[in-house]
Structure formats: C-alpha cells, structure tokens
Amino acid sequence: MSDRSLAFFGERYGSEGSAPRFTQWNEVIEALLGHRSVRRYAQRPLPEGTLELLVAAAQSAPSSSNLQLWSVLAVQDAERRRRLSELAGGQAHVRECGLFLVWLADLRRLGELAEHRGVGHEGLDYLEMFVMAVVDAALAAQNALVAAESLGLGTVYIGALRNHPEAVAAELGLPPQVFATFGLCVGWPDPATPASIKPRLPQEVVLHREQYGAFERSVGALDTYDKLMERFYAKERMGVQGSWSRHSAARVESALALRGRDKLRAALQAMGFRLQ
After folding, report:
1. What's the whole-model pTM score?
2. CB atoms within 10 A of CB 150
C-alpha cells in the first residue's frame, strides 16, 4: 500500500488497527474511506445541475426487483428548511446547507400504478414491502452522497426527521403510504470549520467469518475503541459524555431513549401504511 492509502486507512480506524494486505487502491476507495459528516456550510450556491446529477447517481443504485420504491424531495426554501430543522431537534445544518434532500419510502406510486392497470395491490400491506422501500431509499441516498462528495461537497444524514414523522409528512405534503426515512444535507463545507474523519469500530468487531462470533471476542477491541473515541470527542469538542459504549448503550436503555421513535408503528398506520 502507498503512504497515501495507509494514511486514509489509518485515519478511518484511528491508526489503531493494522492495514490489510492488499495492493489495490483507487480514487473511489479513497473517497469512500475519506467520508466525514459535515455540519458547517459555506453560503455558496451549488453548481447548476447538481440536484439532477445527484438524482441520476441515486437512480443508478441497485433496486430490489427494480421496483424503485423510493422518491426524493428536494427542499431549498429557507423557511421550510427552518421548520424541518426544528422538527429534527433544531439541527442548524438543515437550515444552513445549500440543498436538503428528504429520502422517501414510497409505496404509493406502485399502488397507484396497479390501480391504473386494473390490478390489486394487497402485497403493499406487508412489512416486507416497506422494508424493501426503506432499503431502496438508503441505497439510492448513499449513491447520491458518494457522488456529492466526489464533487467536493459536504454531506450529513439527518435521521431525526423520524422523531416527528406525521409533522414532517404534513410539512412536505406527503400522501398516504409515503414515509420520510431520513434527510441529507448537501453543501460546500465551511473551510473555517473543517470536519474530521470519525474512527469506526475495528474490523475484528464487525467482521465475522463463516458464522457469527461470540461477543466476548470483541471486548478488548471495544475497550480500545472507547479510549480512541473519548480522545476524538474531546478533540472535536462534541460534548459527548462518557465512552462510546456507554453512549451507545444509553440509546437503547428504554423506549424513552428512542426519542419518540417507539411510536413509529402508530405513526405509519396513521399515514396509510397497513403493515402486516
């Protein structure tokens, strides 16, 4: 591996792990390993055609059975972004980015197509179809993210749109059986506040071979990662209290820790999803 590739690989794992034994390297891999969440944006307009290019990249992603059960809603109006920011916990970057994309699990289009063709659509009422739509939306969004970052743009996902799904649906005028899965901020990174690559879990924690391994094999690596992330939190002044393990475990300690998402099924049913 070259010094450049070693640096990217090391930064992704906080220089804690050994580099794999491979010689392949290209700009695509470099872009993927160099991903970072950008939450501060310069107030510069995006180049003409950026939205359409990102959507084309999104539509180039795989889709289960080519059903393409997703849509994307572009939000550029400042006042609407402000309201969405409030619904997403007051995240300022939703207001400040040049383009805010809301990725939708969209079962309505296929249902209307079936009706137009005189065909029933009972299958849309099953959880499997909703899962397919969410996966399709996620794959499409990730393609758009990679495309945006290849152009020098910054991005960050906004999962907190799911905190108030019905209010988001009302704000965006979503019809029944269309669900806002998450948002994506896109814009020019603010050079005054550069973002850092956030270290990920060591591969020995997430990589299993042949069969799923016991948790105990990962304890030592998780302890090391906790120390690494504590240093990262302090360096980035993120205000995270305690270790990554404690912070992550607290997110699933109770239904209240889910920040409203425990009501998701009820919200989906109210929005026209009859999941069986």
Report:
1. 0.91
2. 13
